[in-house]
Amino acid sequence: MKEIAMEKDFTLTSTTFSSPRHTTHYWEAGPAGGPLMIFLHGWPGIGLLWRAQVEVFASEGWRCIAPDMRGYGGSSAPSSSEAYALKEIVDDMVELHDYLGAGPAIWVGHDLGSPVVGALAAHHAERSRAVVFVSVPYAPQAFALPGLLPLIDRELYPADQYPDGQWDYYRFYLTHFDQTVADFNADIPSSLAAIYRSGNPEAVGKVYRSAVVTHNGGWFGSEHHAPAVQPDPALWPRADFTSLVEAFRVTGFRPANSWYLNDSVNIAYARAAPDGGRLRQPVLFINGQFDGLCDITHNRFGEPMRSACPDLTVTNLPSGHWLPLERKTEVMQAIRSWLKMTAL
Q1: Domain coordinates of the chain in residue numbers?
Q2: Alpha helices in the chain (DSSP H)
Q3: N or C, where is the chain less crowded by C-beta within 10 Å?
Q4: Considering only the top CATH level, what class is 3-341?
Q5: Is the pTM of this model over 0.85?
């Protein structure tokens, strides 16, 4: 068992839970008897993405859990793309939650961790006291390309020039999957350093880089590998970025990218949720104001969430897509203030 020192006399402990169907590696901090707060990362991360928030909430008495999701880090990474359907990933979290005692938790998701949190809250409402979506809002009909296209800002992305808008990269995964894996795997440290960059407020209202992936022939164009850039130390602490790189040296990008390959079954799973997928729990959405991919203030991307979440709070922060890293303290404060407001 590996331990990483934290402030305030807490330690971030590395633990593994295995069932007959799956192994989940997770990071834990805080008192064993404290109320549960579970943090789910997205693409392309590991549980350490949440270090700053876990550290603070653990020091305040919460039992904080940050798993490596299926296909990432020390968790199982099946070879078939079908293994990354949303229901399989939710079932991983149900098993982990049972192992942790099954007490109703605060579930926090970022990026593709948000659809997992949303589906779990919809299908297993008794397991969540409340839910937090960071960067990616709740999509009651599933986070899937067919549901995203009608929400595109067509003034910024005319359909004749940008049929898939900012979701062009998603289409490219579906049409050139092996290339996306090979290009990211060509230089894993540089790929991760290039992916994790702070947002730029000057990019608001301009075509985002994810909209021209097909036009450019891939994320990195004809080079088919990431440029040689250094990681941003303001985002990942050096040791954590090293852990991230080491994790991807083991798994590569194929498992992570496979999360995008199950639209049909994910839509069917969403349609099977009780009450049309409405979330009756308190919901917080933290929006990055200059997130060119997911910001909800310059398009209709937030409309399904607003309709499906009657107890919804939205907090806007000046940030790009990587909110838990770009605005470590502000994300923690937003969650803390909301928890107090909702008396959770």
Answers
A1: 3-341
A2: 51-59, 86-99, 113-123, 145-148, 168-175, 177-185, 188-195, 213-216, 238-251, 254-258, 263-271, 303-308, 323-326, 328-341
A3: N
A4: alpha beta
A5: yes
